[in-house]
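re the bet — no i am not wrong, look at it urself. input seq straight from the record:
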Amino acid sequence: MRRAITTFADNSRRTSPWAASIYERARAEGKEHPLAVRILARAWIRVIWRCWNDGIAYDLAKHGGAAALLAPNAAGG
């Protein structure tokens, strides 16, 4: 399970600005790649847990952290 979640997290940082942000922040703090991926995986687990408990599918528009990154003001424009 750990390998599946960390592989998912590692791949997600290439397509999700939210995931890339978490990964890059961890790297900027001096974390090695494996630890940065685990930090990102833990963040994804929180999202997955919330979806499971609420009985809803993941929706980027409802994901507060991702939506904030995608907002026009977040990019400076």
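see?? The chain is about 70% helix and 0% strand. told u. also Residues 73-77 have pLDDT under 50 and may be disordered. so pay up
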